[in-house]
Design goal:
single chain, 321 residues, alpha/beta, Rossmann fold, 2 domains, elongated, binds (2R)-2,3-dihydroxypropanoic acid
């Protein structure tokens, strides 16, 4: 049966065509930003499916005022969706795990190396002043990543892919926090599970991969930052609100920690001004963890697969929960 599918933001044309080819009506809103609950209700009142993104705010109100069969978010994280309200409204929610694991782990590794070796700053100074004379005792010096200790907060798929790169590529020792023990990661990488405080105290680099929820919001704050080593680097490619940005900026400015590589921010699209003031101690990127052409296409394609399956009465491929 033909269904009405609302698409909030721009998506690969060929993926939308797959929905039309299956006989469905596609309403592409092409919004340049995420939709508010009010906008979502207005546009999806009589829709069957929603192809959404992480900046759309799918609150309980949306599910109470629509009759959506499926919401397919083109993201692995779904903290923007009230999943309990969706379940109550009998709306299936799907996400796009796995297909973005490698790209996101690659970016976490890139940020780690960029901060440790001051790549943006070195690039800018070379463009402006040339290399200058070679100096054995140049300042500032970089930090070694090879052989250092990496603490992974949340050893899910992306955390594990980062552990693989860090351990086999850079000889890093792997520590992790997770709800449950990961015997496979312990066998493969010699990973050691620790409580958060001990992980922070022992790691040279801490990389955040936990989902955002009430328990993990502001996991990194003034108190937990104080547990970290003064030469440590914090990496966040997960969700911005895992970190209290004001506290992080303070910790960078007063040398509590050495640097931070951030791809996600507490109040996207804004970046806390104090973080900008931390200057060369931070490397900042605009939520591009999954932004390779192949990965973004795979994400869109998987979300469309989910919609087509559910509208055809089949089980979703990658449901939330
Ligand atoms: C996700 O999928 O949750 C990322 O943040 C965006 O790719």
């Amino acid at each position: 049966m033909a269904a009405k599918i609302v698409v909030t933001q721009p998506v690969h044309a060929e993926q939308l065509q797959r929905l039309r080819d299956a006989g469905h009506e596609v309403v592409a809103l092409d919004s340049p930003h995420g939709l508010s609950p009010e906008e979502l209700i207005e546009h999806t009142k009589d829709a069957d499916a929603l192809l959404s993104q992480l900046t759309d705010k799918l609150t309980a109100d949306v599910f109470a005022n629509t009759t959506l069969t499926i919401v397919a978010t083109i993201a692995t994280g779904y903290d923007n969706i009230d999943v309990a309200a969706a379940q109550k409204a009998k709306t299936t929610v799907t996400r796009t795990p796995d297909v973005l694991t490698d790209a996101t782990a690659d970016l976490a590794m890139t940020l780690m190396l960029s901060v440790a070796r001051q790549i943006p700053e070195s690039d800018a100074s070379t463009r402006e002043h040339g290399t200058g004379p070679f100096q054995l005792l140049r300042e500032p010096m970089g930090i070694d990543i090879s052989g250092a200790t990496l603490g992974i907060v949340g050893l899910g798929r992306i955390g594990e892919a980062l552990a693989h790169r860090a351990h086999f590529g850079f000889g890093m020792k792997i520590l992790y926090t997770a709800r449950s023990q990961h015997p496979a990661a312990e066998d493969r990488f010699g990973a050691v599970r620790l409580p958060l405080g001990q992980l922070l105290a022992q790691s040279d680099v801490v990389s955040l991969h936990a989902p955002l929820n009430d328990e993990t919001r502001h996991l990194i704050n003034r108190d937990t930052l104080k547990l970290m080593k003064p030469n440590a680097i914090l990496i966040n490619t997960g969700r911005g609100p895992l970190v209290n940005e004001k506290d992080l900026a303070e910790a960078l400015l007063d040398n509590t920690i050495a640097g931070a590589g951030l791809d996600v921010f507490e109040n996207e699209p804004d970046v806390h001004p104090d973080l900008l003031a931390a200057g060369t101690k931070t490397v900042l990127t605009p939520h591009i963890g999954s932004a390779t052409a192949k990965t973004r296409l795979a994400m869109a394609s998987l979300a469309v697969d989910n919609i087509l399956a559910v509208l055809a009465g089949e089980p979703p491929l990658t449901p939330v929960g």
